[in-house]
UniProtKB/TrEMBL annotation:
Top-level taxon: Eukaryota
Keyword Cytoplasm part of the UniProt annotation: no
Domain G-protein coupled receptors family 2 profile per the UniProt entry, residue ranges: 45-103
Classification via InterPro entries: GPCR_2, GPCR_2_extracell_dom_sf, GPCR_2_extracellular_dom, GPCR_2_secretin-like_CS
Regions crossing the membrane: 121-143
SUPFAM superfamilies from the UniProt entry: Hormone receptor domain (SSF111418)
Protein species of origin: Varroa destructor
A cellular-component GO term for this protein: plasma membrane
The keyword Transmembrane helix appears for this protein: yes
Keywords linked to the UniProt accession: Membrane, Transmembrane, Transmembrane helix
Protein name: G-protein coupled receptors family 2 profile 1 domain-containing protein
BP terms from Gene Ontology: adenylate cyclase-modulating G protein-coupled receptor signaling pathway
Molecular function terms from GO: G protein-coupled peptide receptor activity
Length: 144
């Protein structure tokens, strides 16, 4: 299988949909309460719960890595998710796509290719239908 960077480019919007699908979880998690109770670091990013993981306070310009959560389907706990604290002290988005198991990424790629084929066949079918409808309309008007 291609490396993750290649699959990111190939997946396009499908990866965003898959990522958003799995981020819709855990809003009442104990991690959320703990994350909001932690101390604030001056000159860096504060603790932040993004709906899946609690990111501890981090100095500006540093990158924090955490193990991928194991309680979400298709995630591999042997992989890591990274998040960078910008020099301005704001969190950059975490890339959870790296947490997906390889089988799931292959599944998304296959589904993405199938969807492109379906769209192509649909376009050809609708175009043919439109051309024949116009021809039938012209024939009907000319025979009247």
């Amino acid at each position: 299988m291609a490396d993750l960077k290649d699959s990111n480019l190939e997946l396009g919007n499908d990866s965003e949909i898959a990522q958003a699908d799995f981020l819709l979880t855990l809003s009442s998690s104990p991690s959320f309460q703990w994350c909001n109770a932690t101390e604030v670091l001056s000159g860096g990013c504060p603790a932040h719960f993004d709906g899946t993981l609690c990111w501890s306070p981090t100095p500006s310009g540093e990158t924090l890595n955490l193990s991928c959560p194991g309680d979400l389907p298709h995630y591999s706990t042997h992989k890591f998710v990274f998040r960078t604290c910008s020099p301005e002290g704001t969190w950059q988005p975490a890339a959870y796509l790296g947490c997906f198991s390889d089988n799931y990424l292959e599944y998304i790629q296959i589904m993405s290719r199938s969807l492109r084929k379906i769209k192509r066949v649909s376009f050809i079918g609708y175009s043919t239908s439109l051309v024949l409808l116009i021809a039938a309309f012209i024939l009907l008007v000319s025979l009247k």
